[in-house]
């Protein structure tokens, strides 16, 4: 199926006057034609849209191709950035002020509580979205060549996302924040040799006080944001270079050309579009065989097909976080008090699985070896699993190992979050729930 040719209608009246003015043409260089060339220009003539390739695999239009989870993570991050900046206007990272600022947000600041709610639920959802995105990428075998390095960058993004949530947790300076971070940072000190030093570095001392609050704040708003943008730039750039592992197709011809730099090259047909919408074929050098070149009928223009779908998903994600923010208030317990330990004191939910493990194993095993080995195994995965096939029936061992670990972690998390009460004793959540997100 080829792209439908849409009859051209030139803008009339004031629209034509605006679009032909020198000011407009200096910002938007080419008029918006609904022709193949116009659609291509929409993508590469716009600083935001040029992240997209001009044409994408048709299979990518199906929601289930990626479940849009990477995109949803990006949308959630944008929501967190905007709401986070708003919160920064009213928040002081000082032990004497932080809790009071939280109360002022509720009563004195326009939309303060709503923005705080959206920021908090958005953060929880982002952890979930990123984890499910990782699972989707694993199931599709999309970490295999040539995408190994992008998987490693992804693991970096996962660590940054968890670190964002964890450092943000302390900022309200209430009992929930103080004790969750106490449990979390206590885990660090079990690292052999460097544990005590790492904990001191993170907290700026041996206890959680003013230095810890300031360090968590700076890491939360500045260090992680810098790291996130850097990793994200590489993640998206590599996506363009490697293409998406969707529909079992190769990357676009012009991207393939760049990948061929260091390899023995052969030539395959590549296409380009003329101003009148005709397509011409040329040759490019590539390390892929011609059999990998995608047929034009397997591709569609990113604008409007994919971009419109992304806009709908972005609106749905915004609506969901807003609805959660309206319906559920972010918790704020009493002012942090180092002398009163709440029972039970739990780590944030995404670390509570480790806390549960701690109840059964030595702290060195549960607090350091288990998470360390898990992250190292994730990083090494694409280099260990050399099986080139992405079909599930050829990857039984990898899938069984992955699902076993994932289910074990999920079960530990559910037990720790819902089935544990005072003294880490077993409780039934429908009798008494000791869990606050
Ligand atoms: C903040 C976190 C992340 C963001 C914002 C993000 C964003 C994206 C986006 C927008 C895509 C395009 C496909 C889609 O929409 O799903 C993508 C693909 C990809 N991501 Fe991520 N990602 C993140 C974390 C991760 C993680 C944790 C991993 C794995 C460890 C990962 C590995 C990959 C790989 C290998 C691809 C290519 C998938 C394919 O070819 O089908 N990403 N990512």
CATH topology of the largest domain: Cytochrome Bc1 Complex, Chain C
How would you describe the shape? globular
Determine the CATH superfamily of the largest domain: Cytochrome Bc1 Complex, Chain C
Radius of gyration: 25 Å
Strand arrangement, major sheet = 1-4
Mean pLDDT: 87
Order of helices and strands: HHHEHHHHHHHHEEEHHHH
Q: What is the highest CATH level, the class of the largest domain? A: Mainly Alpha
Tally of distinct domains: 2
Largest sheet: 2 strands, antiparallel
Structural class: mainly alpha
Give start-end ranges of low-pLDDT stretches.
249-269, 287-292
Number of helices: 15
Please provide a brief summary of the model:
With 437 residues, the protein is mainly alpha-helical. It is globular, with a radius of gyration of 25 Å.
What would you note in describing this structure?
By secondary structure, this protein is mainly alpha-helical. It has two domains: 61-243 and 303-424, Cytochrome Bc1 Complex, Chain C, CATH 1.20.810; 253-293, no CATH class. The chain contains 15 helices and four strands. It has helices at 13-20, 22-27, 36-44, 69-88, 98-107, 112-139, 148-170, 175-188, 195-203, 210-242, 253-259, 302-327, 352-358, 363-384, 396-418, and strands spanning 55-57, 266-273, 279-286, 299-301. The protein has a two-stranded antiparallel sheet with strand order 1-4. It has a two-stranded antiparallel ribbon with strand order 2-3. A hairpin with a 5-residue loop joins strand 2 (266-273) and strand 3. Helix 4 packs antiparallel against helix 6 (112-139) and helix 6 (112-139) crosses helix 12. It is globular and about 75 Å long. The model is unreliable at 249-269 and 287-292 (pLDDT under 50). The structure holds protoporphyrin IX containing FE. Protoporphyrin IX containing FE (HEM) is lined by residues 66, 68-71, 73-74, 77, 130, 133-134, 137, 140, 142-143, 147, 150-151, 154-155, 157-158, 161, 235, 239, 244-246.
